[in-house]
Amino acid sequence: MNRRTTFATLLGKRRKLPKSRQTAAFVPASSGLDPYTGSWEFEQAAHLLRRASFGPTYQDIKDAVSMGMDQAVSALLADQPMPDPPVNYAFSDDPYVPVGETWIDAPYDPNINLVPYRRASLLSWTLDQIRMEGMSLREKMTLFWHNHFATEMNVVNDPKFIYRYYSLLRENALGNFRELTKKITIDPTMLRYLNGNQNTVGSPNENYARELLELFTVGKGDLIAPGDYSNYTESDIAAIARVLTGWRVAGYRTFNPNVSVASFFNPNLHDTGTKQLSYHFNNAVITNAGEQEYEILIDILFQQDQPARYIARKLYRWFVYYVIDDTVETNVIEPLAQLIVANDYEMKPALEALLKSQHFYDMAYIGPMIKNPIDFAVGLFKIFEVEIPSALQAHYVSLLPIVDFLNLLQMALFNPPSVAGWPAYYQEPSFYRIWTNSVTLPLRREATDLLSTTGYGQGDTPIRIDVLAFVATLDNPLDPNALIDEMASILFPQPITEYQHDYLKSVLLPGLPDYEWNDEYGAYLADPNNEDLANAVESKLRNLLSAMLAMPEFYLS
Fold it and tell me: pLDDT at residue 13 above 50?
């Protein structure tokens, strides 16, 4: 997996990587879920936070080191209060929602198109929740479930529905997989997205039934006989569609202030006949149980271990790596699945075991994951604690360019390309490499150049990395060698080579001895209000930062 040399070629890098960094094909480690007993230092803490959040700050990593692994993982898994909802940040023509108040329960208007501003509000607000997540796994897991139980805003086309759907995922992000599957089955957004609201006795719609088996619970597996796959049959899909008849939604694009977003059961539209599942589900029979039938169905699906294995593989690809060979299957996936079953499909014990395992901290898994666009883009803001305007309108508006940027990077928030989610997590053999191509790599480079130099936004204060403030947080910024190595430890998953270090020092101090930096930065520290000194130091640091953010290693986790 020659990821670094591939990146260098696509980015038009002129420098040649040393042979020691031109990695061979990836070989999965043989370690398993046994607790990690190695050293707990900066590299391990940074690896944990890079995978479990969207870009840790230097202080976050140092805090995790001080906590120790057990306490750091506990902090990540701790329950968090739900955030305040998104608001009308600027649209004064909304007849129901004044600027500064939330629109999540407000009706629409037949004469004014309120969808665009509410959509922008939801997108900006959601990115802000990720940006402000702190030391918590919740937002990372919420996005995981969004990729798993995928819906598309462009199809559903009602921000109120999407808000409720994503809130459901956030509320249950660290909860019970089986119970979340029950809730998502009758969620109004999912009902609209996969036509469950059109599923009627005498005319069953099989869309959700098929995805419930193929993508959400047991997985399809191989075709072993006509209409019979490894984990279910076509007759199971037909029976499940009948079980799920009768569910409808309320509140879609409604003009009525008294109608809320909701799902409800209409018994007159429900198939009351007997439904029998195949031998894959022990030939279970569901008799007429009205609106409880979907819960009975989900319980039957989860009586076997296959949903646990299926979700264990998806967790592995989300948090560890995409290569799952027989050794990983035996040493990690199967014990993780059994842990999920033993805990009645509660996810916290499995997440805790995975994030504290020997396998997770094996050197083979520190650095080979390509950051997804949300991780990359929001991480830039988080790592450097980029300031966002606090005024309401400016705050929301300043985050909207990130929304547009994610669209260009092919990870549009709330709009995965299909019900299967983003291909980087399932499409063989490319997987994560899908994120980086001749279109998206130059865009990533443009983004890092922009934030590390001129910034963006309107007004006198551009939104950009405050490189002087960032370097001031380092332990030894007076020493150019320590400065480069410390920045590299924050930005890159593995130590840089001597060759890379020398290259970066030539950017900071082109042809100059080390003491020149000590003298210049020291003079700035002694007189920080001197604009000439500040500008000279800032210019050198921005050149260094721009070079580091352009390196392939910054795209890795």
Answer: no
